[in-house]
Amino acid sequence: MKLSIIGTGYVGFTTGVCFAELGHNVICVDNNLEKLDKFNKGESPIFEPGIEEMLKRNLENGRLSFISEIPPAVKESEIIFICVNTPPKEDGHVDLKYIERAAREIALSINDEYKLIVDKSTVPVKTAEKVRETILRYCASGAKFDVVSNPEFLREGTAIKDVLEPDRIIIGADNEHAKEMMIELYKPLTDKINVPVKFVNVRSAELIKHGANTFLAAKISFANLMAYVCEEAKADALEVLDAIGLDVRIGKQFLNPGIGFGGSCFPKDISAFENTLNVLGIDMSLIKAIQQINELAWQRFLKKVEKELWVLDGKVIGVLGLAFKPNTDDIRNSPALKIIEELKANGAKVKAYDPQAVEKTKKAIPDVQYCLDAYEVAQGSEALLICTEWDEFKALDLERIKNSMVTPIIFDGRNIFEPSRMREIGFKYFGVGR
Ligand SMILES: NC(=O)c1ccc[n+]([C@@H]2O[C@H](COP(=O)([O-])OP(=O)(O)OC[C@H]3O[C@@H](n4cnc5c(N)ncnc54)[C@H](O)[C@@H]3O)[C@@H](O)[C@H]2O)c1
C-alpha cells in the first residue's frame, strides 16, 4: 500500500521504517529540516536499537523516502498517518495545535480520490471528530475521506520489536471500508504473527491509550508507595512486590520502586486523562495520587542523599544515567535531570554520564561536568547516584569504582544492585524501599 507519515519523531519514524520493512511504500514528512537531512543520509536522529540498519535498508530498496511537504505525500498515498507531537500545555491540557495544523494541510490536498487518515498520536477522546471537522472545513467539496484512530503502544528502547510484534493492534473505525483498509495495512504483520486485532469505536480507541498509560503509571506509583512503607517498617519492598506480582491478576511488570516515571508519555498522558475526567465531571483523586507519589519518588531519594551527606555545598556528586529509562536518549521529564538541578541548587558539583543521553542533556543543563564513562564520574566523587538502569551500570567493576571515590557511598535509585553485595565490597549503600 502507499502510505505517508506526518511527523517523524520516535513514533512516526519507527512506524514509517517498520511499515516499509513490511513491504509498504512509505513517504515520511517532517518539517524539521535538520532531521530530514539525517534521514536522507541514512542516519537516525534518535537512539533506538536496530533502527538505523532498517532505515538504510529501506532507503536503498526505494520503499522509504523523506520529504518536508505534506501535499505531495498526501497526493501519493492511500493512507495518511498523523504522528505529530501532542505536548502538554502549562495547565495540563494537551496542545493539539500540531494535530490541527496537520489536519488543515491534509485537507488542502485531498479531493474526490478517497484517503484514509489515521491518528496515531496520543490524543484526548473526541480528537478524531475534531480532525474530521477540520478537514471538512478546509477541503474541496466532494472530498472523500475517513478518520480512524490507531493508538501506538511502542516503548522507546524496544520500539521496533513493539511495532513488529505488538501485544495488540487497536483500530477505532466507524465504517467498514476504513476497517478493511486497516486490515489490509496490517496484513503483512498479521500473516506472520499471532496478534489480537481489536476493532472498537473511535472514541474507545482514543480512551484505551490514555487508560493503559494511566494504569501503568498507577502500578509504578503503587510500587513506590510500598517502598515508602517498607522503608519505614524496615521490610524489603522488592521481596514484598515480587510476591504481590506473583498473583496473575496483578503481574510483576511495572511493580518496580525507584525515582519515579518520566518520559514524554506517562506524565503528559495522565495529565490529559485527568483533564478528560475534569471535563466529564468525574473525580480525579486517583490521578492526583499517582502524580503526587511520583513527584515524591525523586524528592525522597534526594532527601536520603541530603540526610547522609548533610551538606551538599561544594561536594562532588556523580550521577549515572540521564535518560528517563535505559536504551533511549530521551531525557523528557527525566527524574535524573530534576535531581541534578536540585543538587546544583544546593551547591553540589555534579559530574554525570549516560551511554546515550549526554548530548541532549548538555543542551538542557550545560554547567555539569559530563564524563566519558562511569569510572570518570566516580573519580573523586563523594557519592554516586544511579538514576537510570542501563545494563552497562549493572556490569561495572565495583572495586574500581569504590577505590576511585573519595567516600564510597551509592544511592541506587533503580535498585540495580544487591545491598548485601554492595556492603561486602565496602560501599555504604542506599536502595529504594530496602
Ligand atoms: N515517544 C513514545 O514513546 C510514544 C509512544 C506512543 C505514543 N506516542 C505519541 O505519539 C505522538 C508523537 O510522539 P513522538 O515522541 O514521536 O514525538 P516527537 O516530538 O519525537 O516527534 C514529532 C514530530 O512531528 C513533527 N511535526 C510536528 N508538526 C508537523 C507538521 N505539521 N508537519 C510535519 N512534521 C511535523 C516534528 O517536527 C517532530 O519531528 C505523541 O502524541 C505521543 O504522545 C509517543
Give your account of this protein's structure.
- The protein folds into 3 domains: 2-200, 3-Layer(aba) Sandwich (Rossmann fold), CATH 3.40.50.720; 210-291, N-(1-d-carboxylethyl)-l-norvaline Dehydrogenase, domain 2 (Orthogonal Bundle), CATH 1.10.1040; 296-430, 3-Layer(aba) Sandwich (Rossmann fold), CATH 3.40.50.720.
- It is of the alpha/beta class and 434 residues long.
- Helix content is 47%, strand content 14%.
- Helix 9 packs across helix 11 (266-280).
- The chain has a 6-stranded parallel β-sheet with strand order 3-2-1-4-5-6, sandwiched between helices.
- The chain is globular and about 75 Å long.
- The model has no long low-confidence stretch (mean pLDDT 97).
Bound ligands = nicotinamide-adenine-dinucleotide
Supply the number of structural domains. Answer: 3
The main pleated sheet reads as:
6 strands, parallel
What do we call the CATH topology of the largest domain? Rossmann fold
Helix content: 40-55%
Shape-level CATH architecture of the largest domain: 3-Layer(aba) Sandwich
Please count the helical segments. Answer: 18
Q: Output mean pLDDT.
A: 97
CATH superfamily of the largest domain: NAD(P)-binding Rossmann-like Domain
Q: What is the secondary structure topology, with strand pairs?
A:
Elements: E1 2-6, H1 10-21, E2 25-29, H2 33-40, H3 51-60, E3 64-67, H4 70-76, E4 79-82, H5 97-108, E5 115-119, H6 127-138, E6 145-149, H7 159-164, E7 169-172, H8 176-190, E8 197-200, H9 202-233, H10 237-245, H11 266-280, H12 285-309, E9 316-320, H13 335-345, E10 349-353, H14 358-364, E11 369-370, H15 374-378, E12 383-386, H16 391-394, H17 398-404, E13 409-412, H18 419-425, E14 428-430
Parallel strand pairs: 1-2, 1-4, 2-3, 4-5, 5-6, 7-8, 9-10, 9-12, 10-11, 12-13, 13-14
Helix pairs in contact: 1-3, 5-6, 9-10, 9-11, 9-12
Nicotinamide-adenine-dinucleotide (NAD) binds next to α1 and α5.
